[in-house]
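Exam revision sheet. Question 4 asks you to relate a sequence to its structure. Input first:
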Amino acid sequence: MSAPDGFPRRLVGKVGLVTGAGGAIGRESALRMAREGASVAVADLRLEAAQETVSLLEGEGHEALALECDVRDQVSVERAVDACVGRFDRIDLLHNNAGVLIPGTALTQRLEDWDLHFAVNVKGVLLVSRAVIPHMQRQGGGAIVNTGSTASLVGEPNCVSYDSTKGAVLQLTRQMAIDFAKDGIRVNCVCPGWIDTGFNDPIFDDAGMSAQEIDDAVKLAIPLNRQGMAADVAPSVAFLLSDDASYITGTSLVIDGGFVAQ
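Answer key, C-alpha cells:
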C-alpha cells in the first residue's frame, strides 16, 4: 500500500531510532522512515542538528523526538534509548549511522584520530545496539541497519582509520545477525559510496582538489557518472528495516553507482 505522496507504507506503527540523524544520510533516513509510517527518535551529538531534523519531520506532520547522544558514551546512549522508549513505549527499528572521517595513512594518521574513529564508528554501533536489542527481544523482534561504506569492501587511499572501522562494521553486522536471528532481530548493513553530503570533503580538501577536479574524478571512477545523494541511500535503509526484507539478515547492500563492481 502506498500513501498519496507515493511512498510505500511499510513501517506503519513502528518506532525507529536513528543516530547521526543531524547529518545528511541520517536525516534522509529519518525522513524516509517517517514517510513510510514510523515514529522516529532522532539522535545526534549536536542537539541543534537533531532538532533541525525533527522540525523537518514535524513540518510534514510526523511524530518525532530529538535526542542529544554521544554514541561513544554508554551513559549517554542509555539515556537516549530510555528517552525513546519513554516517549514511544518501544523501539522496532534502529539505524546506526553516526560516523566520523579524518584522512590519514598508516604513517600519518594521528593515534588519537585512530581511537576516535573506532570509538564512534565501531564502539558506537556496539553501544547503541546493546542498549536497543533487549527492547527488541522483549517485543519479539526488530530490525537494525548499520551504515558501512564501500570502504567496508575495498581499500581507499588516505583513509586508514575510516577503512579499518568500516570493515569492522560489516563484520559486526554479520556477527550480530547470527547471534540475534533466534530473537527475530535482523541486522544488515548499507554500504554507500561517494555520497555528496560534505562527509567526504576532508578527503578532497586534504588532496587539494578543486570542485572541477572532484567532478572529473567522480566521472572517471563512478560508472553512473555522478556522486550519490543522501536520498539515494534512505530508500535502501527503509527497505532493509521493513518486512519486505524479512528473509534478509547479515548482508550488505552496496549503494555506490557501480564503483566496486569494476
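Marking note for examiners. The first strand starts at residue 15 and ends at 19.
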